[in-house]
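Minimal example, chain plus iron/sulfur cluster.
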Amino acid sequence: MLDITAGRVVFDGTDITKHDRAAMRPFRRRIQMIYQDPFGSLDPRMSVAALIAEPMIVHNLAANAAERAERARELLEMVGLRADMASRYIHEFSGGQRQRIGIARALAMKPDLLICDEPVSALDVSIQAQIVNLFQEIQAKFGLTYLFVAHDLAVVRHISDRIAVMYLGRIVEIADRDTLYRAPLHPYTQALMAAVPIPDPEIEATRPQITVQGEVPSALNPPPGCRFHPRCPLAVARCKTEEPQLREATSGQSVACHLV
Ligand code: SF4
């Protein structure tokens, strides 16, 4: 959606970094996006049926209007809504229902990858679990891959197979879910994990406390060296000048820290 300023984007073995509009077209269908704010990402002047049918028209995925309408009704039922809701407009739905409609619209494209940008953080806590469960059901049914962006560690743990921890726009640690929660290596990841309360006062009282001082600096003007150094309890002189590279520390676990 934005021009690339650095790095590469490799999708399913193909480097799509320099693809023009025409070359990107088949990939656009395969990569769909779910947004944090479904109300802001769905056109309020279109009926739900039209919202779900629109990408099918763009990518020629249905033979005619009747087929698109039938598919829209099927998709609504698949995401837990009623088929007769297709004629309504987005303002008539709750936040959770709107997110279900956003998911139905993305599924209309028969994607392989869903990029989910904080898809549950704007929802009421009581609704979040329903939508996370819906994501998991759909993943199992269609064999989808998710790139799931979230800051709620309980949600991350529940839905992820592999986790990349980011700080100020840089990946500082990547590992599979169980390794990351059991043995985080980067000081920032360790502080994140230490901040999750454990509902057992005895364990809570004895586990090590890792406190991070200060505020997150601006990503527009990040600190030199390791971006985490002004707040890191373990920082040494080298951290102020030399940016640590992401490298494999244990099998399948990569970390960007001079001390690991
Ligand atoms: S490189 Fe230095 S400042 Fe950065 S996380 Fe490691 S110890 Fe802390």
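The chain has a mean pLDDT of 91. The chain has two domains: 10-111+120-130, 184-255.
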